[in-house]
């Protein structure tokens, strides 16, 4: 098959150029026979908790890696991630005296949408991009980058491993403080076979909460169709190209029953444009009367290139975007429902303090195979700042 260019990338809605359709079909079939990873009643429980967020009676913390790695599906690594989520949630809970709904980007965040089908190496050659462990390998090697349908089954197995650690760890904690599993609903041949019946409807059994990314939220596209067909609580990222009409249409498509907790908009505008882009969106959605949760992802709109060629983000811009989000929602009588963060418990150097630092920073511990994450101190600073805003 021919390699897809940017146009093909758009029409195929970020689906990888799988080399072997027959094998892909077999894998789809095999996934259809696997047991659900998540029981349906747990997704209902999450929807009830998100309804409290919609009413302004609780706060969301959603966080984790940009892309999980198969190799990290081990109990010690997973427990560190859960520990970070619990610590940050506890800080919000004690700071505000409100319940916190905690979701990890975990147990299935194995696929990445990409802005371009190729990356360019220093020697001037190009390499198909890494699309997450569920699709291809991160190594800078053309063979590793060939999509492999068998990886979809491995993604299921690793997600099951992570969920098993999550369940074991949960036994030591108050059920009110449970951690839910979320990832981007991106790979249709993975998600579709895992959609299962649930009291009169259907639900995605791969996750508690799934979101549709900025690049695949076409109201007429297959991802929104999939999200509309399931009962799980779902989210949609809203970036700079989202218009008020887009969000109104998405709210009607995804929450026709006007169920509180069903739909979340995750705002990722960029600190330099949120002030003028977000207000018309919030006002248009409020006018529909359709209940939604609003979250701030203050990372994805603030990605810059460092002098060394790394993708990075400045903590200053992240704090500025979160503050603008909070003010814009409050000024319109809406609850700034919480944060969606890319973060890690590991002591990485991936995000810089200020944009000016990006020119010269050396990034000695840049470990992310994809987007730059907040390290523990940076994540704590972001969460504390947001908690202070909500308390004021
Ligand atoms: C992500 O959450 O990793 C992501 C790719 O986000 P977005 O769709 O907002 O760009
Ligand atoms: Mn990302």
UniProtKB/TrEMBL annotation:
This is Phospho-2-dehydro-3-deoxyheptonate aldolase. Its cofactor is Mn(2+); Co(2+); Cd(2+). It comes from the Bacteria. Binds 1 divalent cation per subunit. The enzyme is active with manganese, cobalt or cadmium ions. Phosphoenolpyruvate binds at residues 105, 214-215, 237, 268. Its EC number is 2.5.1.54. GO terms for molecular function: 3-deoxy-7-phosphoheptulonate synthase activity. Mn(2+) binds at residues 66, 300, 342, 371. GO terms for biological process: amino acid biosynthetic process; aromatic amino acid family biosynthetic process; chorismate biosynthetic process.
